[in-house]
Amino acid sequence: MKQAKISWQNGQPHSDEFDDVYFSTAGGIAETEYVFLQQNRLPELWRGRSNFVIAETGFGTGLNFLTTIKHWLASADSSSILHFISVEKYPLSKHDLQQALLVWPEFNELQDELITAYPPAATGYHQRWLFDGRISLLLLQGDVLDMLNQLNAKVDAWYLDGFAPDKNPEMWSDKVFKQMVRLSYRGSRFSTYTAAGFVRRGLQSAGFEVEKVKGFGKKREMLTGAMKQNQKISSAAPWFKVAENKFESKKVAVIGAGIAGVTTACALTKQGWQVELIDKHASVAGEASGNPLGVVLPRPGLDDSPETVFYAQAYFLAVAELNSLANKNDQFNWQQTGVIQLPSSERIKKQIDNINRIKNLAKVLDAKQASRASGLDIENSCLFYPEAGYVSPASLCQALLDSVQKNINCQFNSEVKSLKKSANKWLLMNENNQLIISVDAVVLANAAAVNQFQQTAWINVQSIRGQISYMPGNELSKSINIPVCYEGYILPEQNGRHIIGATFSPNDCCTDIKIEDQNKNIAGINNWFADLFKPGEGGIKGRAGIRAASEDRMPVVGPVADEKFYQQTYYDLNKGRPANQYTDAEYLDGLYVNVAHGSRGLTSSFLCAELIAAQLSNQPLPVPEKIYHALHPARFMVRRFRKNKSE
Questions:
Q1: DSSP state of 534
Q2: Among positive and negative, which fits the CA dihedral 616, 621, 623, 627?
Q3: From 3.40.30.10, 3.30.9.10, 3.40.50.970, 3.30.43.10, which CATH number describes the 334-390+467-545 domain?
Q4: Contact call for residues 226 and 190 (beta carbons, < 8 A)
Q5: pTM higher than 0.90, yes or no?
Q6: pLDDT tens profile 95-114
């Protein structure tokens, strides 16, 4: 996306797009405190709240954000969470942000964490947790209307802080005000430095009570006010309506201690949940997450499909989380080497030819550059993912659990065989029908085993066998510096061996090592680098695991539908009736799934974990609505109804 064009005038950042300043160097902090905090009655309104949501139009240099969190950290309860949502169409570069904030030495201790977590200039939603989980920053990078249209949240206070209305009218349109109404409730407040007549009239027409008050400093007037009443707004997709959860306590069981389960458990602790992490194996990563090493890389696309948007957002978050974990834990070995992608498909070749459309994820290396970077003799131009790398899934899972150190209790060697609901509690039963634990909510992160439970037997998940091979390093292979991907992949030598793989065998649950799959892996790498390895070299060594995938290659994440209700309510979706004629979805209260990550779990799991935690906690969703729909477990059922298919 397009970054902000900044010029510096007497050390002050000036927007070239809008011919306006980002802030006044004379009293900028005091102005934020007066216009946005005082007029929105903050910190008064957030005292005693476990969660508080602020939405801002115009992140800019982050001055409003830093001023707000300074007050939040000083006055809010230490267990409370501030959700700060901010839209920015032209984000500053990290360098410009850092330079702009030099004006405010008061924020030296706060701004370092913001700058470290600051996302790249990439269209979409970017959530980052700051200050030991006390602050959730959700940056919506893109056009204000596009971003707000896709937002699912209930906002307590609005900061309307776009550039001046006469210079940036799109930020102050009636369509934006209508989105504010959709995202507000009776009593939601707003404030803005402007007193422009069309802004006042637009907010009043939308449903806000508007008051003129004295402006800051020499400014005569400004606007503030509140939402008059709750608005009943019909969902455009009631079959995907976000559940509103009410629990007696916040005790949840996560079944499955692979990367999906562990990231989910950690995300839930940030929202104040007490987590029981349960797995039938003796330690973390006992199933598909048990490969010694795995590659973290994006899945670029040349369109704005849900798949493309999801994997880009998931990749940026995964890299940020891995970097953060590595910075805090010297023992955690995250190899951020970059990754080479050979032109192994027409899709990849098109991306190479249209690199400007994915330049925030990848760049093109010519054959010479790719050969030098990889240590192999490459004959073609390739994609290079500079922020990508590889990591041990098991060590990642353990490092994540070690980083939490509270609110997670691990139960290993414990297999849940059935689920029962009794008196608003979920009862987890073992093979002898004995109670393992009773909890308020359950998240199934157990891959293809999700289908073993009666409540989730209908969910579309396919088992896919994948075998990797361990090959001894040789004179040629020892020169490999970074992961190289083709139809499969090869990793640099570690402990005298390379990992190559992986095979793809749908509906095969055998975990024995197969010689034919060993030969497939060797043939795959030799197809690109002739005679790099010989069949049988070093013996037949490797590992086979069972991955779970969906039919559309997207994970399956969200609340478990009441199958009977869906069949009775949405069976005639093929008839074309308006959405407002259908009632909202009903779910099995407190039962969620986070499965079907396929071979991309290291990339996708962090974002899906945050989505689960947000839903269970009734907090702003960290993904656009179209991504929430694209991940929803009931999507396949809805598609069948649209096609008038019962099976």
A1: -
A2: positive
A3: 3.30.9.10
A4: yes
A5: yes
A6: 999 988 888 889 988 999 99
